[in-house]
Amino acid sequence: MPAPRFPDDQTVASGGRIVLVVLDGLGGLPHPATGRTELETARTPNLDALAGRASLGMHTPVAPGITPGSGPAHLSIFGYDPTVHVVGRGALSALGVGLELEPGDVAARLNLATFDADGNVVDRRAGRPSDDEARRVVARLRDELTPPDGVRIDLEVEKEHRVVLRIRGDGLEAAVTDTDPLVEGRPALACAAIEPGSRRTAEVVGAFLARAREILADEPALNGFLARGFAALTDIPGYRERFGLTAAAIAKYPMYRGVARLVGMEVPEVPTSNETTIDVLERCFADHDFHFLHFKDTDTRGHDGDFDGKVRAIEAVDALIPRITALGPEVIVVTGDHCTPTRMREHSWHPVPTLVASAHARPTADAFDESTCRVGDLGHMHGTDLIGHALAHAGRLVKFGA
Questions:
Q1: What is the mean pLDDT of the chain?
Q2: Number of structural domains in the chain
């Protein structure tokens, strides 16, 4: 008899509603002047009140010491081991902008970038252009590009400098190297095949990037691309199949809608702000058992190195918590996908503060921050264990054994 899969084999298709609130990049490091992190500095009366009726803990998205990307980190808190379900960023971005992937397609995430006359990267994000500016440049490329015979190339703007590339044709595989050098002042790297089956992909991508530079040569800033996160379609069992949940994703940024769609979540509407995220939740709350809410600004301010800005971003989400609690979900989970300390300006490997509020919680503190979560009754868990806690608190898991 095969070993049981937890929590999958214990789930029932009834029970309470769950709301998962993800403040992207939530965790931080102490400010040198105060000794307090961004979350510990923020005034969060509503999250603190929620902590007073919640179990607290910390989670590690991948493994100790391993810094996760956003895709693997979200898969982890959704309940999918990111070391088993390895999904490239390109596939997640493609699904997020509505580019469907078929077997044999290859997708990548492109950065609009600024190159100088010598071919060196001056700005890896081309000054973070507006969505409209990015769409204008992508429209130029669509008009002037001539793909190789038997190959279809599709481009869609994701957000600001981010663009999604989908390549469709025979003989394509996704094992190719990124072209982003990750620093300014150097030329882009060559796109090379990691495995023999990906040689054609590398050739197509190399020709596309070179032709894009030619077409956009007269653009002062948006004059080329850096490519990364090449990926192909991955078949992953969805939320209804695994957990018996009808799930919805409410996220402004396409990539997060993509990873949610990958695991079978529906996207009822696309919000345009933090406030409209809650508007969508209020409209569709009765239609789903599980709601994933994504808030990006905490991560953005972390990457900017803006400590006070990240504090304000946390406080802005805190102000919305009463609208969530007013809906009466049986379980509210609040966490981050990973940490983005402003001192580091990048994702980090540190454990992420986590809160699970329900009528069955064992509260240990009346504040939500790294210090209180480190000693909470949930302890230090792997990110994939979070869904089991949420299901149990919602009365959606049966007893194991007699």
A1: 95
A2: 2
